[in-house]
Amino acid sequence: MRRLRGLAVWGAVLLALGAGVSPARAAGEAPEADLSYHGSAVLAGGRVDVRLTPRNHGPGDVPDSTVRLRWSAPLAAGEQRLAQGCARTGRQEVVCRTGALAADGLGERIVLGVRLRGRPAEVTMDVDTVWGGGAVDRNRSNDRRQVLVLDTGDAYFF
User: Fold this and answer.
1) Quick check: pTM over 0.70?
2) Count of CB atoms situated within 10 Å of the CB of 135
3) Strand 122-131, strand 93-97: pairing
4) What is the CA radius of gyration of the chain?
5) Which end of the chain is more exposed for a tag (fewer CB within 10 A), N or C?
């Protein structure tokens, strides 16, 4: 009986290989994707305006994911102007849902403005993936960004 189960497992592996599917994928391993974020940030008078576009370099689709934006200065108390699908999750951070990201495709642009406590002359903004929709991202270097934004009213691109 044990030998029969072993043969059945190897048969399934060989069938999966013959069909172009890896054994791990046949066993239900998460798909692979490569997420990245590109955009700009502008700081003027204590307000940061951010525009960013998520991208999935593939090879698999991502049903949904979450990007985190974290500033080196605390956010001001009270209401913030956040995009739909975004929420303040801490003293200095906001998370935003990207929606579905097709392989080798761009997501919807995320636009938000936040007010910082006081009027800092500069702030660093960290951008990173919190959740990748269950996909495995083996290249984490391009979905983590740190941007220095000076209070000049100029756009700083990442």
Assistant:
1) yes
2) 23
3) unpaired
4) 21
5) N
Residue whose tokens read 């740190």: 146
Only one residue has tokens 């756009």, namely 155
Strands 86-88 and 66-71: unpaired
Neighbours of 8 (CB within 10 A): 10
Exposure string over 32-70, b if 16+ CB within 10 A, otherwise e? bbbbbbebebbbeebbbbbbbebbbbbebbbeebbbbbb
Beta bridge partners of 91: none
Q: How far apart are CA 46 and CA 31, in angstroms?
A: 41
Sequence-distant (6+) residues with CB within 8 A of 116 are 46, 47, 48, 71, 73, 74, 75, 76, 123
DSSP state of 32: B
